Amino acid sequence: MGENQTTPEPPLVSVPEAGKILGGISGTTIWRLTNKGALEIRKIGSRTFITMESIRRLAEQGSD
């Protein structure tokens, strides 16, 4: 009881959620970053998601 339990981080997030995680940047900027290869996308059906791994990498290394 009383243990601190953290919710596991999802491996994929939506484009709007990725923008929020990265400080409130716009969906347009997210798409520019995917086109540059700075963020990785995954398609599931008709939906597009951004990988948390690529978000972390971008936050640590930045984008040129």
TrEMBL record:
Short name of any one Pfam family annotated for the protein: HTH_17
Domain Helix-turn-helix: 13-62
InterPro entries xrefs: HTH_17 (IPR041657)
Protein name: Helix-turn-helix domain-containing protein
Organism field: Pelagibius litoralis
